[in-house]
Amino acid sequence: MSEDRTVIKKFPKLLHGGDYNPDQWLDSPEILEEDIRLMKQAHVNCVSLGIFSWAALEPEEGRYEMDWLEAIIGRLYENGIYTILATPTGAMPPWLTAAYPETLQTDENGVHRFPGDRHNFCPSSPVMCEKMRQINEQLSRRFGGNPGVIAWHLSNEYGGNGRQAACHCPHCQEAFRSWLKNRYSDLDALNHAWWTTFWSHIYTDWDQIHSPSPNGENVLHGLILDWKRFVSDQLLDFCKAEIKAVRKYSDLPVTTNMMGFYPPLNYFEWAKELDIISWDCYPDWHSREEEIDVAVRTAAEHSLMRSLRDAPFLLMESTPSLVNWKARNILKKPGMHALSSLQAVAHGSNSVQYFQWRKSRGSCEKFHGAVVDHKNGSDTRVFRDVAALGERLEQLSDRIYPTCNKAKVALVIDWENMWAVSGACAVDNHLQYMDLCMTYFKQLWVRGIDTDIIDMTRSLDNYRLVIAPVNYMYRGDYSERVRQYVKNGGCYVTTYWSGEVDDTDLCFLGSHPLRDVLGIRTEEIDAPAPHEKNHVVYGGIRYDVVGLCALVHAEEATVLAEYQDNFYAGYPALTEHAYGAGTAYYIASQNEEAFLDVFYDRILQRAGVSSDFAGVLPRGVTITKREQEGREPLWFLQNFNNRKAEVPIREPYTDLETGTWYQERIEMEPFSCRILSREPEMALVLNQSVD
Ligand code: GLA
Ligand code: ZN
Fold first, then answer.
1. Full domain range(s) for residue 639
2. Is residue 120 one of the residues assigned to a domain?
3. Can 33 be counted among the known catalytic residues?
């Protein structure tokens, strides 16, 4: 029996729409009516409502005004537009912060924030928790059974700009200490885990423990790591309390809009509490000469969202044109709107939602892109692009099943490792963990190979190939599970700067935990100055070293590449080791891309993994398969080049939308996406032609 992965049961279609803020226009009913008319014209079938509506829903403490919201939800519903209803905790009304200043955060320097702004509530404040419970329960009671409401959108981008994820107020200090007591039980265990004998930091009372601060404690790595864990957990506890409150009178699915690889929150833990994963995606399109690296990063983030629950997800926000918060804000070039939106669908999104439907008239987002501008109604390039995509999604809706890909390759990207490695005070204090991970993901993207993103707690067993770059910290039983995985026939690739510390950030003693599996002994690691050139020789070809260099010794492993220069000439740069029924690889240095290109051919062959697409992908073009249980998969062929591309194929494919049947090559317009199938009868239009 196949698992039902329908994202939203009440409205199992591809969603198209976005954040809608009618509360900014309640005194202009003609605008609200125009919105409905334009939404229908743009093929919008879903909006997110109420995200920042606390002040409109509860104008003064305990007095709720929800009629306006009910009227709007009803009017939308009559017109075939569904609502994802938000809880309003993303921003606090002035009456709340004035009456209860404790609801506002205290920053890492002990400065209590002023009222205003958003995303700045203290998640430990009992008053905040109570006020949130009250308004959420009101919303649940009033709208939980409303036919137009299909899901709950909890708060907004928990953690905000990153610095707002943590609050250092007295309530939070207390909560941190309780969290620690729960983790360590006694102070001796904590002192050992944090290595507090260093610089005379031994704690003799729980009350002596304080959150890290530039103005105070910032050297105990164990403490800093636990604080990061606590911050993610504490906000998650608040989110769980929000879920409990909206569930009081409703069993609709819950989601919250995530932010990709957002450092402060461990989304692998968050995912366990949510019914639906959704996220806000704002890539830097057109910021460089080529789109490839941006497309790669975005693809990895979509893959993460799918992997978090092994399920389809929602693209909750994206801009229909530009944003307003980057140093330079660039319009999407023709084609990019549909391409970037379909990229999300290709990876498993069941929606294309925007921030925002209509531009606000005032305040800091008045020039942020929107479907509807201040002027010109529907007569704009952006509106036409949106409407055209809406129509495409409407037609595709019944053809894209809510199934989920089962990738054969996994890339290990772990939040706790990210925290530990970024504060390691070690060989490279500017190490860009995510950028490094992306170089390993890119090789799969250029080949059109689907990849899951997993953390160290997830099972490795169903993958043929696991790539684990810069796994500096080994959490829990990770190394043991890797050992079993390889022993049982898995193919495992890891790199320099792995297996250094355990999950309390204490260094492993003796040897690398995977010494036997990798067949090597690790010794030193270097961050050579940029003027110092080094090379590795692999398969008779010389490649530039561009980053960290580990100096290791091959014990049981076979050396596939060696360093060429300086005192580390002759040291292994790449090793391979057969262990049990599997193989483990170790890459000692960060090398130019061409090195990985050749290396991936080897490991993919070893692991028996290839793209099932019968074609050759030119530079800047990729293909993403979306599996369709019981049917042929759909193939999203994406051209991220600002020029035409031609894709030679070995087997025929049909363009699902036009019915065009391709036999030898597929022509791609600049910035475009074609959805292909091997079943000609799947085509939506029957005007088949042969190229
Ligand atoms: C985030 C927020 C939105 C809006 C957009 C602007 O995604 O959730 O409220 O501020 O950014 O890009
Ligand atoms: Zn606090």
1. 621-682
2. no
3. no
